Amino acid sequence: MLKKEKEDSIRLRKKGLSIKEIAKKIGVAKSSVSIWVRNIELNLDQIEALSKKVSSIKVVEKRRQTRLKNEKGKRQIILDKAEKQIGKISQKELWLMGIMLYWAEGGKTQRGLVRFSNGDPEMIKIMMAFFRRVCNVSEEKFRGYIHIHPHLDHKKAEKYWSSIADIPLKKFFKTYRKTNISSKNKKDTLPFGVFDIYICDTELFLKISGWAKGVFSSY
Asked: Does 46 score more than 70 pLDDT?
């Protein structure tokens, strides 16, 4: 079989094809083709044609890179402009943000437990600000709980989430390390797992529920 591939490589090289083109056409490594055709001399027209191909490829790639750079620049302008439109978040805005985020991602089945779960550190930061600055939750009530795949570094994750939420590790429940069947093909998309904020407070749970109902009935 290799003999046929070698013969085909020589034949194609004599037609002026590049080593890369031959390797792709035949389905062999470029290093093999290079050895097989090293004694084949190309005429001036063939050399010129190959040179033009290389130049053309470089031009196309340069244009592609320029286009991507321009597109990235345009997107960044939109992002920067949108970011500046937000400005400083007021206490009421934080209040409404926290209510809606909790209603989307928070626990709503256990009346005595306020629980917010997310793998995005920014969401955790916002909710911790909501609980601290709006709900006035005392530091003693906060607990942390991590869900993480067993092959990941759970100790590193614990330190990470402790830093993000500003909750001491001594207030963390034992980390849950088990593969979630529904996300078994996405094992490393969350290298620090998912973090739960726990607050045992029936009154706060009822308040958030009431606030959410107030939002839903106000528009």
From this structure: yes
